[in-house]
Amino acid sequence: MKRFSGKTALITGASSGMGKDYARLLAAAGAHLVLTARREDRLVSLRDTLLAEFSVDVLVLPCDLMDPVSRQAMLDALDGRGVKVDILINNAGLGLQEPFVAMPWGHLQGMMDVDMTALTHLTHHFATRMQARGEGYVLLVASVAGHMAIPGYAGYSACKHYVRALGYALNGELRPAGVRVTVVSPGATETEFFDVAGHQRNLLAKLLTGKSEAVAWSALKGLHRGRREVVPGLINWLATLSARLLPYTLMRRIMEIIF
Ligand SMILES: NC(=O)c1ccc[n+]([C@@H]2O[C@H](COP(=O)([O-])OP(=O)(O)OC[C@H]3O[C@@H](n4cnc5c(N)ncnc54)[C@H](OP(=O)(O)O)[C@@H]3O)[C@@H](O)[C@H]2O)c1
């Protein structure tokens, strides 16, 4: 990942799970970092660990991505400090597992705000600048759920379909301007995701759960090469292939058994 050395990467959702792994791998590749999420104490602790291990700059900027005022304050703070973001890792996100009509509207709206609106806002803000400079990298974190429609995760699946569609289109739009846009679609991965989702996984779902660092590594490798989409892991790749080939009713039954 030579091309990332000396660049500055903004990582959303860096307080936990895959975000922490993106931070560590990018620091190891020599990239300077801006870490953001709501839990500042965790970001500070990650910054201190990375600073002790790698010779890179690490800036912590807490932000609630659900809140447009907080998002704008973070963007203004970056401008105020003259920070030029070369690599945008749109990782923050959440899924809520609940029957669609049982979910309070506020919860659904909050999920859509983080998973779609904030991701689109940051992508628009930084891609505009990257295009003007003729260089940049944007990673959009989608999900295997964005390849299918999962009962119980209806809103989340729909959000991740949006992320994939946006990323695919931007990969084509921005490539001629030197900006690489990659979508990563992880399958079930061991992070805090399922705690936040309120999802008690069965044994099969646990067995199919992969490691966070492996996902982050595949995603960054794909971004470095400018690939349109990365689906880390053979099982996840087979799941996305099945979603294309199998009838929806059969696929839905399989999803119900696993999830
Ligand atoms: N784990 C999986 O099985 C899986 C599978 C497919 C895709 N994904 C996707 O992978 C991405 C990373 O999730 P993860 O698995 O690493 O889960 P995680 O451990 O729960 O991490 C989610 C991150 O998003 C941040 N976040 C959530 N709401 C936020 C808000 N309102 N403002 C700012 N930051 C917010 C959290 O930080 P704070 O709480 O500190 O704000 C946290 O750092 C997500 O986009 C998720 O949809 C996960």
Describe the protein's architecture and organization.
It is globular, with a radius of gyration of 18 Å. It has a single domain, classed as Rossmann fold, CATH 3.40.50.720. The two termini are 35 Å apart. A seven-stranded parallel beta sheet has the order 3-2-1-4-5-6-7, sandwiched between helices. It is an alpha/beta fold and 259 residues long. 39% of the residues are buried. Bound molecules: NADP nicotinamide-adenine-dinucleotide phosphate. NADP nicotinamide-adenine-dinucleotide phosphate binds next to helix 1 and helix 6. This is SDR family oxidoreductase. InterPro entries: NAD(P)-bd_dom_sf (IPR036291), SDR_fam (IPR002347). Belongs to the short-chain dehydrogenases/reductases (SDR) family. Keywords: Oxidoreductase. GO terms for molecular function: oxidoreductase activity.
Task: Give short descriptive properties of this protein.
259 residues, alpha/beta, Rossmann fold, seven-stranded parallel sheet, 10 helices, 7 strands, 53% helix, binds NADP nicotinamide-adenine-dinucleotide phosphate
How many domains? The number is 1
User: What is the CATH topology?
Assistant: Rossmann fold
Largest sheet: 7 strands, parallel
> Strand-residue fraction?
5-15%
Strand order of the largest sheet: 3-2-1-4-5-6-7
Radius of gyration: 18 Å
Low-confidence stretches: none
Q: How far apart are the first and last residues' alpha carbons, in Å? A: 35 Å
Topology:
Blueprint: E1 8-12, H1 17-28, E2 32-36, H2 40-53, E3 58-60, H3 68-80, E4 87-90, H4 105-133, E5 136-141, H5 154-174, E6 179-184, H6 193-197, H7 203-207, H8 212-225, E7 229-230, H9 234-245, H10 248-258
Parallel strand pairs: 1-2, 1-4, 2-3, 4-5, 5-6, 6-7
Helix pairs in contact: 1-8, 4-5
The protein binds NADP nicotinamide-adenine-dinucleotide phosphate.
